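Quarterly update from the structural biology core.
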Amino acid sequence: MLTVPNALSALRLALVPVFAVLILTGHDLWALAVLAVSGASDWLDGRLARRWRQVTRLGQVLDPAADRLFILATLLGMALRDLVPWWLVAVIVARDLLILALGPPLARLGHGPLPVSDLGKAATFALLYAFPLILLSSVGGHVGAVARPLGWAFALWGTALYWWAGLRYAAQVRAMLRARREVDSGTGARSGSAP
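Predicted structure, tokenized:
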């Protein structure tokens, strides 16, 4: 459990409240720097875990948890400063609530959280690129003019991919539940027919 990739994920979790304070107090450049460090550690921890064969169950839980908390903190901080609309917060939080609701059925199956799919990783990547760009658009001038449309393109694509990945995850859980019911009903039928 004490691996470099897990330490990087833990660092990212620790940076969430730091980022929240920075963005809420208007220290945008420092907030951007924290986002950049978080994004780099997100890329690095996955790469190191695969290269050094240090993929752990803890890492598979910590990594997406850190991503989701960063996305939530960023969204709330930016919405409170009127940089993004509240409907975007609602759409992304609703998707995370869907994933959270799938936890109890998975637990009943004796299964932990499913691994993050490539589609989910792409969605997270897009969203974590979108927010710094949208934050940068508040600078104004030529930088802001370029950053704003790019940021919103990443945000809208990322949100669509985020939901697509979530619905695929839900479909996986549903298929697992159906398979379990079929096994259980088959077992019940066989035990009922036994002399």
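The longest helix spans residues 141-193.
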